[in-house]
Design a protein that fits this description.
This protein is an alpha+beta fold and 773 residues long. A hairpin with a 2-residue loop joins strand 9 and strand 10. Helix 3 crosses helix 7 and helix 3 crosses helix 9. The longest helix has 28 residues. It is globular, with a radius of gyration of 27 Å.
């Protein structure tokens, strides 16, 4: 409690000094200011509330971790209660998550969100939500309605709204089913890759097909840009897209999942593990629940704002997800008439649909935005170019219903019934059940194109690049009960290159998948402890390949360089925060990539474009003849691989000496490689953030943590064998920063520790009874 009192004082101080005194003076009010949040923190030990719309009483038991176990005699009552507890613990987060994709964030935070709002209003996810709601089956629509009623009951009856509303001087609006649906669409957009096509257009215009083939190799044929001269427009749309980036919405960097058959399991049960890699914030994207009613007996993580359990298990089955990486977005360059009322398609002028969107801005006059649409999709316009966006998520899709069916499935066949409704984003679902079945299946609407792959923007007028359908569900990549006794995915290419359909072109490097498969294959039988160890494994495969090359090439020019080489020579190749060698190695990789590629990118005018993946760098380092990218095109000399490696190593040691001094033993990885957990408003009030901490792992390890100050990683870890089950995520159940459940999982998570996932006999912290009125 002392720590929470200190936090209250810090919040007051930072409210005063974040934007000078005046904007936050109201926070000091003794009754309506932030003090009230430190005085009313935890849920009452026992509370009863009368609810007229319930059919029966509902019992909500929160355990010692703040996890609600909801017991209901009616399915609709169950989801009413879930909506209520979501709002109790995460309302402001939910509000942001519906406003951002609806293009309504400026109503809450003002002009700063206007560009973001114009982007999402143009994209138009919100415009398909009503039709999506109408096409849900009656039973799933009733569940969604009841869930929303629970949220609104909290909004209407609570005496204490979340702290953030006080800071913004705002109040929440009524929650509608469309708010839940648009949030699901937003998650799908973030996980669909979105702007790769525009980046590839820039690269091909600048470096040519041959250069891009070397940097971003694919077994699929590379296209020559059909419409050259789009780089400036691509740049501007990419810049517009960055206006939508914020801590309000997590984005993916990858995920791991795997299932182990009973013959490889020490317990004799099938086992399943999953750790989706997303941007981690406070509060977390995830909210852990246990739901019990006549039709449901399911536990796992939900998205606050939506009723289904996204990843989890019930009495019979367990499932987890990774991103497939399928290419489900295409950009069509449209030819418009002079007055922009029509567009050309197959030699005929077609009418453009124009939609007027009104954007409200806090403290400003409302503004009107005209959005144009063709049959391909909404038009993003910049620098005189008009890109129509075709994305599977702009159609009616029924993921909510599919997940609800999975939540209550008792067999593999029932599970597949739900999976068939999961259209966007494309995901790799891994599965295990109590009968010992294990399976993996890619799912989602993946387009079949008339011509080409959609890797770069195409001519919308020709009709040559239309989508002709979607890969049939039965022909999507899948496997069931393989002889090897396990299945795994880590965002790698899902199938061999002889697969008859085009899936995409951007896949994760093989390293995580290779390491997972190695660890699963090498051990005869596996325990839950083994599964946890695999999830936290930080062995660095690229280091095993590159470090010997460094040691062979580099001749040390100083004592410091000699000592640094010695650390690399004796390194066990694990990216641990207590070691020195990972600091040297990953700093070296930064300098190596910069030295190899910056000159070509700078000369081509694309200095801000992404560098190739590590697998490409590895191939260049180990290939013969050597890549032309080792030569610095800005000099008259011809640099070699050895020159670039030596230069990069010298620059590495110089940088680390400047940062940490000449005592190499102090160059600990955890001093440079840190993890940051930011509150949704942490950029304004830093006291709401969790203190940065040194962290293991890298972009290439199973326990992923890319970059030097990383904000993304394993957002949820689950280990399931239907007897002993464990889980953890970085954060806590409650968004109130004064609560003990605001960050109570973080210390365990950062040490790769878990909490027992207990569904019976758990310690009860509080009980809430929702009484039928």
């Amino acid at each position: 409690m002392k720590d929470k009192a200190i936090l209250a004082v810090l919040v007051i101080i930072l409210c005063i000094f974040s934007y000078a005194i005046s904007p936050f003076m109201f926070c000091l009010h003794p009754y309506s200011g932030v003090w009230k949040y430190s005085l009313s923190v935890e849920h009452p030990v026992h509370e009863e509330i009368t609810v007229d719309v319930l059919k029966n009483d509902v019992r909500i038991e929160r355990d010692i971790h703040g996890i609600p176990h909801i017991y209901a005699e009616d399915d609709l009552d169950l989801f009413f209660a879930l909506g209520y507890v979501h709002a109790q613990d995460r309302l402001f987060q939910m509000d942001l998550q519906r406003r951002l994709p609806s293009g309504r964030l400026a109503e809450l935070v003002g002009e700063a969100a206007y560009e973001s709002d114009t982007f999402y209003r143009t994209l138009g996810m919100h415009r398909i939500c009503q039709q999506t709601y109408d096409e849900l089956s009656p039973w799933s629509r009733e569940i969604l309605d009841s869930y929303c009623e629970g949220i609104n009951f909290f909004i209407e009856t609570t005496e204490l709204l979340p702290l953030e509303y006080t800071l913004l001087e705002a109040e929440p609006e009524e929650w509608t089913p469309l708010d839940s649906i648009v949030f699901g669409k937003m998650m799908a957009w973030e996980l669909s890759g979105n702007f790769y096509d525009l980046e590839m257009q820039k690269l091909e215009e600048a470096l040519g097909v041959t250069g891009v083939e070397e940097l971003f190799p694919s077994e699929r044929p590379q296209e020559i840009p059909i419409i050259p001269g789009l780089s400036s427009a691509c740049d501007q749309i990419l810049l517009w897209g960055t206006k939508t980036d914020s801590n309000f919405f997590p984005v993916t960097v990858g995920s791991n999942n795997w299932a182990v058959a009973p013959q490889k399991s020490m317990s004799g049960q099938a086992m399943l593990c999953n750790d989706p890699h997303l941007t981690t914030t406070l509060p977390s994207l995830w909210y852990l629940v246990h739901l019990i009613s006549p039709s449901f007996g399911v536990t796992g993580v939900t998205f606050p704002g939506a009723p289904p359990v996204i990843i989890g298990r019930n009495e019979y089955i367990a499932w987890g997800l990774t991103n497939t990486g399928a290419d489900v977005i295409d950009f069509y360059v449209e030819t418009l008439s002079e007055d922009s009322t029509s567009y050309l398609f197959q030699g005929k002028w077609q009418d453009i649909t124009t939609i007027e969107e009104t954007i409200f801005i806090k403290g400003e006059e409302e503004r009107t935005l005209s959005v144009m649409e063709t049959h391909h999709g909404p038009i993003l316009e910049r620098d005189g170019a008009h890109f129509a966006v075709q994305w599977t998520g702009l159609d009616v899709t029924l993921e909510f219903e599919g997940l609800l069916l999975i939540n209550k499935a008792t067999t593999y066949e029932e599970y597949l019934t739900g999976l068939r409704l999961f259209s966007v984003p494309a995901q790799n679902f891994v599965y295990a059940d109590v009968e010992g079945t294990i399976a993996i299946r890619s799912t989602g609407k993946i387009p079949i194109r008339k011509t080409g792959t959609g890797r770069i923007p195409v001519d919308g007028a020709s009709g040559a690049y239309e989508w002709t359908g979607y890969i049939p569900f039965e022909e999507l990549p899948h496997a069931l009960n393989p002889p090897q006794g396990y299945l795994a995915s880590a965002n790698q290419i899902p199938v061999a290159h002889d697969y008859p359909f085009y899936l995409g072109f951007i896949w994760a490097d093989r390293y995580r998948a290779e390491r997972i498969n190695t660890l699963l294959r090498e051990k005869g039988t596996l325990t839950t402890e083994d599964m946890m160890a695999i999830q936290s494994d930080v062995y660095d495969i690229p280091a095993s390949i590159v470090v010997p090359i460094i040691l062979q090439v580099v001749e040390p020019a100083s004592d410091c360089e000699r000592t640094a080489l010695e650390y690399l020579k004796t390194w066990n190749l694990y990216d641990e925060r207590t070691q020195v060698a990972p600091t040297i190695f990953h700093t070296f990789l930064d300098h190596l990539k910069e030295t190899m590629f910056h000159d070509e990118y700078e000369k081509a005018g694309i200095a801000d474009s992404p560098y190739p993946q590590m697998e490409t760098v590895e191939a260049m380092l180990t290939s013969c003849p050597p890549s032309s990218f080792f030569d610095d095109v800005m000099t008259t000399e011809i640099e070699t691989r050895e020159d670039i490696i030596s230069t990069s190593f010298s620059e590495t040691v110089s940088e680390l000496e400047e940062l940490f001094g000449s005592d190499v033993s102090t160059w600990l990885y955890g001093r440079k490689h840190v993890y940051r957990l930011e509150h949704l408003m942490g950029s304004v009030i830093s006291a709401l953030n969790y203190p940065e901490f040194g962290y293991d792992g890298s972009e290439y390890t199973i326990d992923v943590a890319g970059g030097w100050t990383t904000v993304h990683g394993p957002s949820w870890r689950q280990v399931i064998d239907f007897q002993q089950n464990y889980c953890i995520y970085p954060g806590g159940q409650v968004s109130n920063p004064f609560s003990i459940h605001y960050t109570d999982f973080v210390e365990s998570w950062k040490e790769s520790e878990y909490i027992p996932w207990i569904l019976e006999g758990y310690g009860i912290e509080s009980v809430l009874i929702l009484r039928r009125g």
